[in-house]
Amino acid sequence: MGEAATGRRATNGPVILLRPQRHGDARGWFMETWSEAWAATCGITARFVQDNHSFSQAEGTVRGFTCNARPTPRPSWCAACAARSWTMRSTLRRGSPTYGRWTAARLTAEGAEQLFVPVGFAHGFVTLSAATEVAYKVSDIHAPPCEAGLAWDDPALRLDWPLPATGPVLSARDRAWPTLAAFDSPFAYDGEPLAAPDERMN
User: Fold this and answer.
1) What is the structure's pLDDT at 9?
2) What is the pLDDT of residues 91-116, one digit of tens each?
3) HSE-up of 146 (CA within 13 Å, CB side)?
4) What residues form DSSP beta bridges with 62?
5) Mean pLDDT (the chain, rounded)
6) Rounded to two decimals, what is the model's pTM?
7) ω before 71 within 30° of 0 (cis)?
8) Helices in the chain by DSSP H: which ranges?
């Protein structure tokens, strides 16, 4: 079961932590990594058009804190398929009572946890061990000019990254994102607050 973080967490809404069933025997195990029909029973109606897969060599690798802002905001789905990661997301909908607050969950290959991240969030993760692989689904094709993000260490967000003593491993791009105060959010508040991960199992 994924672990909710302590800190400035959002309080109500459709961030969903999923746990597919594994069917095991002496050979090992089998599971459906994604089922559109099951997702629909959990309230997920997004149609995904692209799968991505990342590999991070070092523990403490931070990827993000990003979102797809224009012209088509997109929800996403992610899972750790090797080792462990700590994934975080923050609400960015203008006028929301939870604007700038965050939730987090621990995704592991052993537990097969998955996370659905709706539109209106920045998302990122840090690897909790070396040689970590994370798989993603997104509802629109990759468009680098549409990417936006927030500073991973913005003091206004107070993101509680579980980093090793050696500190984070970051790309130049992820070091350059603006703070929340300087971020021009394209997301509008629809009246429904967003929440800490709601756990669903099939």
Assistant:
1) 32
2) 888 888 888 888 889 999 999 999 98
3) 13
4) 126
5) 83
6) 0.82
7) yes
8) 36-41, 172-175
